[in-house]
Amino acid sequence: MVLLKIILKAKHMSNIRNIEDLRSEITRLKEQSKQQEKQLKGDLLQIKEDLKPGNLVMNMISSATGIKMNKNEMLQNGLAVGLTIFLRRIILNTESKAEEKIYQFVDKFSEKIKQFTSSFGKGKEEI
15 and 21 in contact (C-beta within 8 Å)? Predict the structure, then answer.
């Protein structure tokens, strides 16, 4: 590819025969220079972005797992996991409290039944 560009450049320059050809070649080269500069700036910005600590961690995780992720997905997944864990804890705590109250109710109810049935047993023994 580079060799082809060099050949094309040499071909353009060898076709310069007068001042108009020279001016058009200078204009073409200036435009090409601007495009290459724009490409370099874009590449540098991408490298700068890739070297940010958060992106390094994301790229490392993506490389290790083989799953391509971006920041937004990671943030959404992290929030979803965090919310799920939080809700599970709340539900488990509520479930434990409800279970405890039910056990207390059943214990009190069974004690009352025992007292009620034992009062019938005492009454028969006294007759």
Answer: yes
For residue 74, what are the contacts with CB-CB under 8 A and spacing of at least 6? 58, 61
pTM of the model: 0.42
With b for 16 or more beta-carbon neighbours within 10 A and e for fewer, the 72-101 pattern comes to: eeeeeeeeeeeeeeeeeeeeeeeeeeeeee
Contact 74, 58 (CB under 8 A): yes
**Do 28 and 12 contact (CB within 8 A), yes or no?**
yes
Radius of gyration of the chain (CA): 40
Q: What per-residue confidence (pLDDT) applies to 123?
A: 54
